[in-house]
What does this fold into?
Amino acid sequence: MDPNFKKEDSLSKEEKIAQIEKQISVSLFIQAAAQISEAILLSRLYALRDATEGEGDIVAGVWLQSIGQTIEALAVSKELSTLNQEELRELQKIIISSDFIQSLGAAIEGAGGIKVLKEATESFLP
It folds into this structure.
């Protein structure tokens, strides 16, 4: 039997919630690091390949998502240690705004993908 199972059973509901919230915070930082890594690698790749307009849009979209993800990770981390209700509301607004930033980045990346597809199709036409 897993020794951590009994430990988890003995935790109160509030302690379990706090534990899960901390795990979520850590996962957001992991996502941010992965997103930044992707943005850096795409930037390098497209710089070597003389990026088309669509590829440039993809890179811009990924960077925007990286910024939003990083802001969200920082705000969620700070939210977990905040007891002040006014500050908590401000952090929640920042988290929501970061979600919109990530969504905008995904939309730009998607539009760039469509451009790349059109560019590839046009280059194969006789």
